[in-house]
Hints:
The structure is a single chain. With 84 residues, this protein is α+β, with helices and mostly antiparallel strands. It has one domain (10-76). The chain has one helix spanning 63-73, and strands spanning 10-16, 22-28, 34-41, 49-51. Strands 1-2-3-4 form a four-stranded antiparallel sheet. The longest helix has 11 residues, at 63-73.
Amino acid sequence: MSSRIDKSWLVFDSIENDNHDRCVDLFLRPDNTYCFEEFRRDFEDSGAWTPVQYYSGAVFRSKTEALTAAMGVVTWLADNANPS
Length: 84
């Protein structure tokens, strides 16, 4: 897990692209707010997930709001997400 995701946050969904080199983690904070972070995985980084943007500071009231926001800014995500 990236240091960008606080250990007190619960990652409840991790969505990878078809190439398995990008992912978005959706998480819940202890204060019942939601957010997401985008990561990449490159050979040069020994396959470790590296944060791409700084989305984890945003605050959403629901997982649906967080997913909708993520799909609005992460271009590949809409083709890979299965909203529930």
